[in-house]
Amino acid sequence: MKNIQETALVDAVCKICDHVGALPVFTGPDRLMHHPGLFQVVRCPQCGTFYQWPELPWEQLRFYYEGDYDSYETALADETSPIRRWIRRRYTLKMRRFVEQFFSSGTLLDIGCGTGIFLEEMQGSGNWKLQGVEPITSAARYVVERFGIPVINERVEYLELPDCTFDVITMWNVFEHLEDPKVAIKNMYRALKPNGICIVAVPNYESISRLIFGKYWCGWDLPRHLFVLPRTTLLELFRREGFKASTNKCFIGSYAILGHSLAFLQQDLQGARYSLLAMLRRLFHLPVSRVLFYPVQRVIENAGLSSITVWVFQKVSK
Ligand SMILES: [Zn+2]
Predict the structure, then answer these.
(1) Which side of the chain, N or C, has fewer Cβ within a 10 Å radius?
(2) pTM (two decimals)
């Protein structure tokens, strides 16, 4: 792997604080979908944001979403494996229960809805007027045809949403994919009703997995993840745009991300270490391992140190 630690980048521009100039952190390939190319993560010395530089335009970036990406799941009713159906349902039910702590009914917009697995769950409660936003046309069409839920086939930065319309806007593992997070936050602010909330699930820079796995942490997911923000930077960004953070919780994706991080690490190992990790991964994927690991996972989640943090930001007056 190319080592460029010593060279400061003078032309990189941070889209979070507009600072010009950044420090290289590491370069890496597409470890999840194995598309070609090497991508670089840099850090803004002013606000601490990690971002990908140079930027890939969307016309190039969309190529890296093609293939077996997580968001391309079909409706739960079409899931053939009972175990997988149970895992998926458990996952979406947790998301719904989390949302319904704050609003039990109303209007909800899911940004980056993919094939609508979360919208399908919310539709099941019968209490919500739902809408999705999804830039990938085939996924957007699937949601409309399979669930009858309206979807805007656009990227959130280019949306023209009606003012003061939604009680809840959700972005499950989407924020880090955005070309311009600030514009997206402004759009959400405008589209929310007074005291409405946005629920934003993001890679947790402060997670134990990030500390252990370093550049192999799945939260980096190059080149699809364009930004990883330390907690204080994320909170300050939303505060500046008129939101207050009401709470945060780690409750989704911990085990899956750990599995991906192990796979990423294995890609650079050789010989006995490779074989050892291969064996560890086989054990990891046994259902009994998931059960045995659960108490540890809960401790890590309760301490706010797992790989995804779900933040709740409430719209307040600027
Ligand atoms: Zn910055």
Answers:
(1) C
(2) 0.90
